[in-house]
Specification:
The structure is a single chain. The protein has one helix and five strands. The protein has about 90 residues and is mainly beta. The protein has a domain of about 55 residues: Urease, subunit C, domain 1. Strands 1, 2, 3, 4 and 5 form a five-stranded mixed beta sheet that branches. The mean pLDDT is about 80.
Length: about 90
Amino acid sequence: MATTVIKKTRIMQTQPPFEVQEGVDIVIVDDVITKVGKGAAESIHADKVIDGRGKTVIPGNVCSHHHYYSGSPEACLPLQAHRPTLFRF
């Protein structure tokens, strides 16, 4: 079994309770997260240790990208007079 530890990282919860936690360890065994919490990796012998300081870990099924055209000027009333269509061909 391969064990990876991410030490002292920041985690963002995207489901209730929505929160950000600092200084958290994440233990991953064979691609499965088995422990999350402060000090969770203290007694773990890991094959790989990642320094998570200054980094943020979020769940993988979060769509965190944005298409700028989806907030198009057509939806903004004050801008309609200046830009009636977003794309001109």
